Amino acid sequence: MLARPVAGVTVPAVAAAGSTSREPLVSVVIPTHDRAASLEQGIEAVLAGCAGVDTEVIYVDDSSTDDTPAILARYAAAGRIRHESVSVRAPGPARNAGAAVARGRYLLFTDDDCTVPPGWVAGMLASREHHRVSALSGGFRPARMETGAERYYAHRMATIFGARSKPVAAVPMMNLLVERSAFAAVGGFSPLRLPSMEDWEFCYRLTAAGHDLHYDPAVSVTHPYGRHWGYVWGRVVQAAWLGPAVWRLTGVDARRKLARDALRWAAAPLWCLVYYPPRSYLPALALEAVYFATRLAGAVFAGRVERRLRSGWAGS
């Protein structure tokens, strides 16, 4: 979907991405790891998506072992991006490293396997101004719908976010614009090496601090979901297991969350008929059962998981 400014909102057309002559309006921050095969294509799409807005693009290489560092160094030497290197093996702390050197009034996060549309930055700024919020999540569309696993995951994301603009409590970092001052006020992402749910953890603290978070899919990136069921099961189980520990870390009411999860599971035979195509119905029910059972186990052992995270365990 092409990014499109909201009617009646003006975004200044100023210097392009890579300009270092003055403080930019937006700092795009992208952590990356071993993405050499598609990195150049991704960088070019991001740079094109910055057109018309004074933007800097910061890639943070986290422990890559392929040609990722060399590619980033080449683009940085040409003045087209900025490049940081860390060895944290976790997306949250890697994003923090990029945010720490960012100069923009706004931080715009995406992932290294997302493809951003033309006009991305301008569209996100216009949408944020339209909703007048501290943080705005754009949409995320599947890059492919070829396998059963891809179709299931795309429909699962639709059950969570839908197609309408609305306030939300948490979002993934595929397409998030946030005021740098708000990001700094809550301390950025957790320094813990969360292998996933680091985005939820950050968003819970952001909204608890009084910063509005809005979801509007008018400006969407595309993202490839896992082609195989093993990937999907792994992602679903990991999120279910870590969720209660993240609630503990952020002070979220665990009983209320578990009650909502119980209602979701109890009603799954009905709502799965609405949100999933017939051939995905049984896998969806099975995954909902696994998700809820894992969530209950995660709640029982949340204290132990939190202690292991605090001691440096990455959950991998």
UniProtKB/TrEMBL annotation:
It is found in: Cell membrane. The keyword Secreted does not apply. Residues 27-154 form the Glycosyltransferase 2-like domain. Keywords: Cell membrane, Glycosyltransferase, Membrane, Transferase. GO terms for cellular component: plasma membrane. Pathway: Carotenoid biosynthesis; staphyloxanthin biosynthesis; staphyloxanthin from farnesyl diphosphate: step 4/5. InterPro entries: Glyco_trans_2-like, Nucleotide-diphossugar_trans. Its main location: membrane. GO terms for molecular function: glycosyltransferase activity. Catalyzes the glycosylation of 4,4'-diaponeurosporenoate, i.e. the esterification of glucose at the C1'' position with the carboxyl group of 4,4'-diaponeurosporenic acid, to form glycosyl-4,4'-diaponeurosporenoate. This is a step in the biosynthesis of staphyloxanthin, an orange pigment present in most staphylococci strains. Belongs to the glycosyltransferase 2 family. CrtQ subfamily. This is 4,4'-diaponeurosporenoate glycosyltransferase. It comes from Pseudonocardia kunmingensis. The lineage of its organism: Bacteria, Bacillati, Actinomycetota, Actinomycetes, Pseudonocardiales.
